[in-house]
Amino acid sequence: MIKQAIIPLAGLGTRMLPLSSVIPKELLPINGKPNLEYIMEECIEAGVKKFIFIISKEKRSIKDYFFKDLLYRNILKKKKDKRIYKEFKKIKKYQKMIKFVYQNTPKGTGDAVLKCEKYINDDFFLMLLPDDLIINKNCTKEMIKLYSTKKCSVIATKKVDKKSVSRWGILSVKNKKKNYFQISDVIEKPSLQHAPSNYAIIGRYILSKKIFAEIKKIKPGQGGEVHITDAIRNLIYKGERFLGNIFKGKYLDCGTLAGYIKSGLVTFKGSK
């Protein structure tokens, strides 16, 4: 069973400006609840017990969101509100599950994950990207089920329009089954001519602790960032087994203004 999940939250959120200049994009409400909470609920339902949140000093409001005990207590002294009490009780549960790690200079997802190395206890762990919301089916639970039978790394994937492959990390497909396949390569944002498939990486990963050693070997790329896909690719070339899990849920991109608005509309309709 996978018990720990890393969630990188230190990104600048430039695609969500001007909203993200005031509120971290991960706390922006989608149908009355931050996307970050949707991801936590998905993980908890799948059996995750501990979260490592990677934040920056500029995004301390994420920590404040989960540790405003005094505010809740003062309000509840004056007003016996069942909804507020329910929220306070939920926040108290989350407090026991969360550890904060700082990445004050944005150096990519690989660098963020590396900062968590000493806190990972088991051989495999989850890493989830906060821009990606998956509803209707629990993607994390599907991935853990596949991991439990195959005992290897797993990446969530979905088919995308072939014309849009240059926007995604694309997987090379081998030995395809009904809901998964072996990954033989990872190409970051290829041209249509060089894309090995139209199966794109979605922000859910089950990774081996071996990833840390590979990240340390990677030189920063464009913008000084260390990309997790480079470390994954190196492990694949060394014979490490990675499976692509073709998940069943509906994918929503919350990382752009247009995607954020659409996500709110879709989740609102689904809640009726």
Features:
about 270 residues, alpha/beta, Spore Coat Polysaccharide Biosynthesis Protein SpsA, Chain A, 9-stranded mixed beta sheet, two-stranded antiparallel ribbon, 9 helices, about 35% helix, about 25% strand
Describe the SSE topology.
Blueprint: E1 4-8, E2 29-30, E3 33-34, H1 35-45, E4 50-55, H2 60-66, H3 69-78, H4 82-95, E5 98-102, H5 108-114, E6 124-128, E7 132-135, H6 139-150, E8 153-159, E9 169-174, E10 180-188, E11 199-208, H7 210-217, H8 228-237, E12 242-246, E13 250-253, H9 257-271
Parallel strand pairs: 1-4, 1-6, 4-5, 8-12
Antiparallel strand pairs: 2-3, 6-11, 7-13, 8-11, 9-10, 10-12
Offer a concise description of the structure.
The chain has 272 residues and is an alpha/beta fold.
What's the architecture, going by CATH?
Alpha-Beta Complex
Distance linking N and C termini: 34 Å
- Overall pLDDT: 92
Cα radius of gyration in angstroms: 19 Å
Structural class: alpha/beta
* Molecular shape: globular
Stretches where pLDDT is under 50 for at least 5 consecutive residues are none
Q: CATH first level: which class?
A: Alpha Beta
Taking the sheet with the most strands, its summary is: 9 strands, mixed
Strand residues, percent: 25-35%
Please count the beta strands (DSSP E, at least 2 residues each): 13
Discrete helix count: 9
The H-and-E topology, N to C, reads as EEEHEHHHEHEEHEEEEHHEEH
The strand order across the widest sheet is: 5-4-1-6-11-8-12-10-9
The helix content is 25-40%
**Count of individual domains:** 1
CATH topology: Spore Coat Polysaccharide Biosynthesis Protein SpsA, Chain A
Identify the CATH homologous superfamily: Spore Coat Polysaccharide Biosynthesis Protein SpsA, Chain A
